[in-house]
Amino acid sequence: QVEVVESGGGLVPPGGSLRLSCAASGYLLTIGAMDWYRQPPGKKRELVALVNSDGTTIYGDSVKGRFAISEISAQNTVSLQMNDLNVGDTAVYYCNARNVRIPGLTRDYYGQGTQVTVSA
């Protein structure tokens, strides 16, 4: 069984920074990519950032230049550095592990989410 767990959410004032972490654990062989999505209150889930196993990245338009996703570590962890936060960044942030290869199967695994609230 593979588990994806996020950490690092919390309350931060506008203009502040926060770092989220995500770890995929269990008996897995390889991970194709890891990404962060977020779901603001009353809105659809949207892509924040994605990193492929080769280190290439994709960012959502609203976070470009403010957020940075790390490479996938040898321990199958990834972090999301969020700078210059604004109230529009308030959301539940979800980490996902994509194209995870386990013996006999390749599939995605999803985290439970961590709350980020930007407020004065």
What would the average pLDDT be, to the nearest integer?
Answer: 97
Distance between the terminal alpha carbons, to the nearest Å?
40 Å
The major pleated sheet works out as: 7 strands, mixed
Radius of gyration: 14 Å
Number of strand segments:
11
* Beta-strand proportion: over 45%
Poorly predicted residue ranges: none
Shape: elongated
Element-by-element helix/strand order: EEEEEEEEEEE
Number of helices: 0
Structural category: mainly beta
Helix content: under 10%
Briefly, what is this?
With about 120 residues, the protein is an all-beta fold. It contains no helices and eleven strands. Strand 4 and strand 5 form a beta hairpin.
Q: How would you summarize the topology of this molecule?
A:
Elements lengths: L1 E6 L2 E3 L5 E9 L6 E7 L6 E7 L4 E3 L7 E3 L7 E6 L8 E12 L2 E6 L3 E5 L2
Describe the structure.
The chain is mostly beta strands and 120 residues long. It is 0% helix and 56% strand. The strands form 2 sheets. Strands 2, 4, 5, 6, 9, 10 and 11 form a 7-stranded mixed beta sheet that branches.
Q: Which key terms come to mind for this protein?
A:
elongated, 7-stranded mixed sheet, 120 residues, 56% strand, 4-stranded antiparallel sheet, mainly beta
